[in-house]
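Treating backbone geometry as a discrete language has practical consequences that deserve illustration. Part of our work consisted of pairing the sequence of a single chain with a tokenised description of its backbone. We regard such an encoding as a compact summary of how the chain folds. The amino acid sequence and the backbone structure tokens for this protein are reproduced below.
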Amino acid sequence: SYQFGFYATESDLSNATETVWYDLQAAPFIDLEFPTGRLVVLARVYDRYMAVTATLQDTLTVGAPAPAGGRRLLQSASAQFAKARSKMTEHLKSFRASRVNKFAGGMALEGRKKLTPQEAAELRVSLMSNLAEGSGKAVATGGFACEAYGSAALVAGSAQEATPSGVVSSGGLFRRLSRQGAGAQCVGSALSVLGAAMLAQSTGAVVLSAAQSVDFMQGTQLGVAGVMRGALLGAVAGEQPVTAQSEGSAIDARRMLMA
């Protein structure tokens, strides 16, 4: 089986430089939506016993598409993103949740560069909602949860960018992914989503209704419990803990023996 991932080498978002790993697959290639800029693409191979090779990596520079025939593209950025959002909706209708994960992160990063702040915020709300909805339609394996959290971290961004609708959708994502832990390699991404949402609320940047707050807290509690289970899968007492820290949260997970 093959596994692919990427991260941005330069970004004003700290979570954009964290690796997004996608689920294992049989094909030796992957179709992803990359943002413009300098990226590091990663790949590794697992055998039938889940032994893994060293991670292979290469640098990729993604530029804006060149105008056909030397002419300028007249289509606005907002119109281009509207088409991309329509494609995401088609993936959801056809239950291709993994395709949603593979498109969402790159679209969110690119939207911050090409759209107005208001349009970019609306795009992120839509993408987070799509991720949550898609996670409810997928088989919640650890690999799927890992790629969903990784994409959600790129979509969520920082606490300063949070919106009420986006925070509510992130709680729904945690609830839907609570059935399966994401594994130690994705704890940072999950914590990034949680930290941004929690910090936005604690600073007053986002104010939820009482019902929304209860739903968010219940969803994130279930989701974080799933993340912790996945992080400690196969761990033994005395090993180094799994740790991660974001702008609003921190996790220290370790297996212990109780006398």
